[in-house]
Design brief:
One of its GO terms (molecular function) is alpha-L-arabinofuranosidase activity. The chain is built from twelve helices and 33 strands. With 602 residues, the chain is an alpha/beta fold. Bound molecules: alpha-L-arabinofuranose. Alpha-L-arabinofuranose (AHR) binds next to loops.
Length: 602
C-alpha cells in the first residue's frame, strides 16, 4: 500500500473533536462518579423511583436495623423523610458494600437531633475499622467526624448506634481524597480515568435523563444546586434514584478541573420521545401556559454559569464557591426527540429566547434519533430555519455499519449547521468494535470541518447496575475497568489536531471491501507543532504501507503507539515505542491494529 500525506494541502478542523458524554445511567452518578459512599443517605428513595413501582424500593432502601421513617419537622421541606432510631443500631451497606482503604480518612457528616450516638465503619465480619461518638442537640444540627479506616476492605458498612432516641438524616461518608480534593467531590479513580481521555468537552446530564419520561420527569437544573439537603431528589428515567448530590455546580466544576468545555443539555420542553404523561392529561409536552417559566429556567442557567455575582443566579454560583463565571459557551436543547408538532413549537420558543438574550451562546439543536431507513431531514429543516450553529446526531450501529459508512459526513453541506455527534458506539466492547470506531474516527477527522465534536456513549457503567451495553468504562466500588473502546477514544483524545492534511492511499488490492478496512488520518497540532498520523487496519493480515510525508519533516524519535489484538479481544492496551521517520518510510501495520505516529513537523 502507498500512503501519501500532502503537507501543502490542509484544511482547518475542529480542535475539540473528542469529549465525553456523561449520562446518569448505569449508576454513573450516585454509586458512580459522585464519591458519596452511603446509599439513600437522605431516606428519600421511593417506590415510584422504579417504573411500575417497586415496594422493596422505599425510604429504607440500603438501610437495616430498627428505625422508623418520620416526616415531622424535617431538616428541609425538599427532603421530607428522616429516620428515628431509638436505642438501636442501624446500618447502611452503601452501594454493594463500602470500599475503604487502610489509613485513609473519610469525612462523615450527618444531620441529627436527640440522644448521643456512635458511628462505626465495620467490616463484613464485624471488625470495627473506625469510630466516633457525637452528641447532638435537641434541634437539627449538621455534625461531622473524620473516620480513618484501619484496613482496606471492599464490603464495609456504616453503623449508627444510639443511646436514646435520635433522629438522623443526610448521613454521608466521603473519601477525603476526591478528584482535585473537592468537597462533595468525585471519585478520584473514575474522574482520573475520564481525565486521561483528555476530553475537550463534557456533555451532561444525559441522554434520556435530560428530558425524562413524562413532563414531571424532565431534569430541572435548579433542583440540583444549593445545599445538599435543599436539593430535590428525583426518579431517574433508568429506574433508580437521583440524589442530585452531583448537580450542576459539580458538573461545571468538573469541566473546569478537566479543562473541558461544559455542554449542558436541556429538554426542549418535551420528555423522551414526547412520551405521554399517563393519566387523564396525556401531556406530550410542557403545557404552553407553563412554557414561559421553563424558558426562563433555560435562560437562568446561562446566568448561573456566566452572570456576574450581582445577578440573581450568578450570586448563587458565587455562594456555592465560584464567584468567577464558568464561561459556558455551548448549550444543548433537546435530546433525540421525536420531531413532532408539540416538540417543534416548544423547541423554537426556547431556541429563539436564547438567541435573543445570549447571541454569543452556541446552541446545539437536535435532529431526532437516527435509524437505518430513516433520516434526519425534518430535524435538519428546523435547524436550518432557526440558523442553528450546531445539531446533535446520535447513532448506535453494528461495527460493519461504521466500516461501511466512513463517508457519512463527506457530502454534508458545509454551509449548514455543524454537527455534534453526541452519542455513538458500535454494539460491543470487543476489539473489533473498538477498531471499527477507530476507523470511523479517521472519517470524522477528515470531516472535522463539519463535525465539531463527537462523544462515545454511554461513558460509565457500574457492574451489577448496568442498564445499557456497551459502555466505555465499567467499574465497581473499588476498581475501574476501561474497555478496549476506551483506549481508542484515549488515543484520539490525546492526539488531536487542528489541521487535516490531505492524504491518498493506494492499495495493491482493487477490492473495495478490502480497501475500506484500511484508514488513515493525518493532522497537525498547532499548539505543539506535531504531525500525527493515525493508521487503522481492520484486516486479518498485516499491511506494510509505504508512507510519504514529503516536506513535513523527519524524526528519529517519533512516538509510535500501537493498539492491536484479535477481533474478540477485550484486553488490548496501547504500547508505545520510538521509531525513525523519514520523508519516505514504511511501517508494518499488524493485523487488526490501530497505530498513532507522532513527531515534530516542519
Ligand atoms: O446512551 C444511552 C441512551 O441512548 C441515551 O440516554 C439516549 O439519548 C439514547 O437513546
Amino acid at each position: 500500500a502507498q500512503i501519501t500525506i500532502n503537507g501543502q494541502q490542509s484544511k482547518k478542523i475542529s480542535n475539540m473533536l473528542t469529549g465525553v458524554f456523561f449520562e446518569d445511567i448505569n449508576y454513573a452518578a450516585d454509586g458512580g462518579l459522585y464519591a458519596e459512599l452511603i446509599q439513600n443517605r437522605d431516606f428519600e428513595y421511593a417506590v415510584s423511583d422504579k417504573k411500575g413501582r417497586d415496594d422493596k424500593w422505599n425510604a429504607t432502601m440500603a438501610w437495616s436495623g430498627d428505625f422508623k421513617i418520620s416526616k415531622e419537622h424535617p431538616v428541609h421541606q425538599n427532603n421530607p423523610n428522616y429516620a428515628v432510631v431509638t436505642k438501636a443500631i442501624i446500618s447502611n451497606t452503601g452501594f454493594d458494600g463500602i470500599a475503604l482503604k487502610a489509613n485513609e480518612k473519610y469525612d462523615f457528616s450527618i444531620f441529627a437531633k436527640g440522644a448521643k450516638f456512635t458511628v462505626k465503619l465495620k467490616s463484613v465480619i464485624g471488625e470495627t475499622l473506625a469510630e466516633a461518638t457525637l452528641s447532638p442537640n435537641t434541634s437539627w444540627k449538621k455534625m461531622n467526624a473524620v473516620l480513618k479506616s484501619s484496613k482496606t476492605v471492599t464490603d464495609a458498612h456504616l453503623e449508627i448506634s444510639t443511646a436514646g432516641e435520635t433522629a438522623v438524616d443526610m448521613v454521608s461518608l466521603f473519601p477525603q481524597k476526591t478528584f482535585k480534593n473537592r468537597k462533595n467531590g468525585l471519585r478520584a479513580d473514575l474522574a482520573e480515568a475520564i481525565a486521561d481521555l483528555h476530553p475537550k468537552f463534557v456533555r451532561f446530564p444525559g441522554g434520556c435523563v435530560a428530558h425524562g419520561d413524562g413532563i414531571h420527569n424532565i431534569y430541572k437544573w435548579k433542583n440540583t444546586i444549593g445545599t445538599l439537603e435543599s436539593r430535590i431528589p428525583s426518579r431517574n428515567i433508568w429506574n433508580y434514584h437521583q440524589s442530585m448530590g452531583l448537580g450542576y455546580f459539580e458538573y461545571f466544576q468538573f469541566c473546569e478541573d478537566l479543562g473541558a468545555e461544559p455542554v449542558p443539555v436541556l429538554a426542549a420542553g418535551v420528555p423522551c420521545q414526547n412520551s405521554a404523561d399517563g393519566g387523564a392529561g396525556q401531556q406530550f409536552g410542557i403545557p404552553m401556559e407553563d412554557m414561559g417559566e421553563y424558558v426562563q429556567d433555560v435562560l437562568d442557567l446561562i446566568e448561573y454559569a456566566n452572570g456576574s455575582i450581582t445577578t440573581v443566579w450568578g450570586k448563587k454560583r458565587a455562594e456555592a464557591g465560584h464567584p468567577k463565571p464558568f464561561k459556558l459557551k455551548y448549550i444543548g436543547i433537546g435530546n433525540e426527540d421525536l420531531i413532532s408538532h408539540v416538540f417543534e413549537e416548544r423547541y423554537r420558543m426556547i431556541v429563539k429566547a436564547v438567541q435573543q438574550k445570549y447571541p454569543e451562546i452556541i446552541i446545539i439543536g437536535t435532529v431526532g434519533p437516527f435509524n437505518e431507513g430513516t433520516d434526519y431531514n425534518e430535524g435538519w429543516g428546523i435547524a436550518n430555519d432557526l440558523k442553528l450553529p450546531m445539531v446533535d446526531e446520535h447513532y448506535y450501529q453494528s461495527p460493519g455499519w461504521f466500516i461501511n459508512n466512513q463517508d457519512f459526513y463527506d457530502s454534508y453541506d458545509r454551509t449548514e449547521s455543524k454537527v455534534y455527534l453526541g452519542e455513538y458506539a458500535s454494539w460491543g466492547n470487543k476489539f473489533y468494535n473498538a477498531l471499527a470506531e477507530a476507523l470511523y474516527l479517521t472519517g470524522i477527522e477528515r470531516n472535522g470541518d463539519v463535525v465539531t465534536m463527537a462523544s462515545y456513549a454511554p461513558l460509565l457503567a457500574r457492574e451489577k447496575h448496568t442498564q445499557w451495553n456497551p459502555d466505555l468504562i465499567y467499574f465497581n466500588g473499588h476498581e475501574v475497568k476501561p474497555t478496549v473502546n476506551y483506549f481508542v477514544q484515549q488515543l484520539y483524545g490525546q492526539n488531536p489536531g487542528d489541521f487535516y492534511l490531505q492524504n491518498t492511499i493506494k492499495l495493491s488490492d482493487t477490492n473495495n471491501e478490502v480497501n475500506k478496512r484500511i484508514g488513515v488520518s493525518a493532522v497537525k497540532d498547532q499548539a505543539t507543532g506535531d504531525l500525527i498520523i493515525k493508521l487503522v487496519n481492520v484486516l486479518p493480515v498485516a499491511v506494510t504501507p509505504s508512507i510519504e510525508i514529503t516536506s513535513l519533516g523527519t524524526a528519529d524519535n517519533a512516538s509510535y503507539t500501537l493498539l492491536s489484538g484479535t477481533p474478540g479481544n477485550t484486553a488490548a492496551r496501547p504500547v508505545v515505542q520510538k521509531m525513525n521517520v523519514k520523508e519516505a518510510f514504511s511501517k508494518e501495520l499488524p493485523p487488526y491494529s490501530f497505530a498513532v505516529i507522532r513527531m515534530k513537523a516542519n
